[in-house]
Amino acid sequence: MSTPREDLLRCLRRKGFERVHVDYVFCNSQVEEFKKRFGHSDYEDYFGLTHRKLEIPVKRNYAEGASHFPREILPESTVFDEYGIGHSKGSAAAFHMTRMHHPLKGADLKEIMDYPYPSVDESKLCEFKNRVSEIRNNGLASFGFMQMTVWEASWYLRSMEELMVDMMTDNESATILLDKITDFACSKARAYAEAGIDILSLGDDIGTQTSIMIDVEFWEKWLQPRLIKVIETAKEVNPDILIFYHSCGYILPFIDKLIDSGVEILNPIQPECMSFDEVCEQFGDRVSFWGTLGTQQLLPYGTPGEVYSQTLNNLSACGAKGGIVIGPTHMVEPEVSWENLCALKEATTAYEKSLH
After folding, report:
1. Could you count the other beta carbons within 10 Å of the beta carbon of residue 139?
2. Of 74, 101, 160, 269, whose CB neighbour count within 10 A is largest?
3. Among the residues of 223-294, which ranges form H helices?
4. Position 98 pLDDT exceeds 90
């Protein structure tokens, strides 16, 4: 019998499967509720996830504090990510959502060129590779997280408005910023592949709730070549690495082009924006899917019966060849009931039994 890792990778290559593969990401309050119920926080083991997520170690190259924000006074509560992007808390009702502060908003070309972009922390790669090996030795697949690959990291730094204007006016600032971020993304992709990661998780949101975020030809000019460069960098090291791509929203006009760029797994196929059945019918022989169960409507507001039925529907649409890791399309928020999470689990168990 194959290991869970081997079965997951076979499923994602649409060559059949022995078990149904799932994915969940809980928000902090859901983790706490799970811990109260079971006395531990390992929901990944409870729900039978056959992969584990990892992030490559990264060096923060900016000075600590807000000194790299010459044009903005930041709230005292602001924290900074590896890029130096600021995040401050909104209202209590926002839960994990934050207000974003852009250090390169209003910056000139020299500031963009000289900004202290992050880099892979070479001193920690041996330890990271050991963690990847440990996951494989436990029979599980490794999932390398590097979403915010090019577009999102760039506009988070510059602001979407200013980066869009730079791109529309062919300003050199756009080329420099996007190339700097692409170079960093390539260095991460190479390090992930060298460490033996099974699935490389890329992603940039290019869809909104009702339409595409960026014109397709504009995306082909500015973003597709850079995405291809990142994918090719990983594939040159390990041709077998599977390329996962995340974008929320309506992305139907991009799917063909994403597949042509080297994307092998699409996430999340947001059902509030697109019909999973239609996407699966059109593209299911060329790409696999990850997610597909809505966190805006179905999981928080649907009944357990509706969750059970939709889970079976999406699994059946892909069929015996596989090509799906099923689960919520995004983080499981506080409004999602335990009963609905159990209904999802029960449906995957029932579908798995029906195949044997």
Report:
1. 13
2. 269
3. 224-237, 255-261, 276-283
4. no
